[in-house]
Specification:
- The protein is an alpha+beta fold.
- 35% of the residues lie in helices and 23% in strands.
- A six-stranded antiparallel sheet has the order 4-1-2-3-6-5.
- β1 (24-28) and β2 (31-43) form a beta hairpin.
- It starts with a helix and ends with a helix.
Length: 159
């Protein structure tokens, strides 16, 4: 049974194009150093984003705007958090072939329903799901369930 919060999360996932439309925080060593926005389809599976540095380090800010940085070892250690969902994209990586300054082409920069569910944890179960014996639906099913419980106890008492 889906709860309202889980339905809302899935709807938010789809309305934000799996986290793409609201942009991404670029995280390096647990601090946000840049923002990716303005997604643009480039080629099959590749979407480019405008890079906006958010760091106070002028040298790092300048390097973030160059294609060479995204190809470097430091560029491969970046993590990408969806601004729409607050969840990291686990498999995202930058293209090694894009050479447009101020933009970076990314692949796998999206959130799947499974990643969202794992990141946010399980939804709170409903009272019906926490019962040892599930409640039957409908009045006929409840009546049959009551009769089985009643006669099942009666026969076990006789033994």
């Amino acid at each position: 049974m889906l709860l309202v919060s889980e339905v809302q999360r899935r709807l938010r996932l789809k309305t934000t194009d799996y986290g793409r439309s609201e942009g991404w925080d670029v995280v390096l060593a647990e601090r946000v150093v840049a923002y990716l926005d303005d997604p643009r389809f480039e080629d099959m599976f590749w979407i480019s984003y405008r890079v906006t540095p958010l760091t106070d380090d002028a040298e790092l800010a300048a390097r973030l705007l160059t294609p060479a940085y995204w190809r470097s070892d430091e560029g491969r250690t970046l993590a990408f958090r969806s601004r729409a969902l607050g969840v990291f994209a686990p498999n995202a990586f930058a293209s090694l072939g894009m050479d447009e300054p101020g933009r970076v082409a990314m692949r796998a920069l999206y959130i799947t329903p499974e990643v969202l569910a794992a990141a946010l944890g399980p939804a709170t179960p409903s009272p019906d799901e926490t019962l040892a014996e599930l409640r039957p639906r409908g009045w006929i099913a409840r009546a049959l369930h009551g009769l089985r419980r009643c006669f099942g106890r009666a026969t076990s008492r006789q033994n």
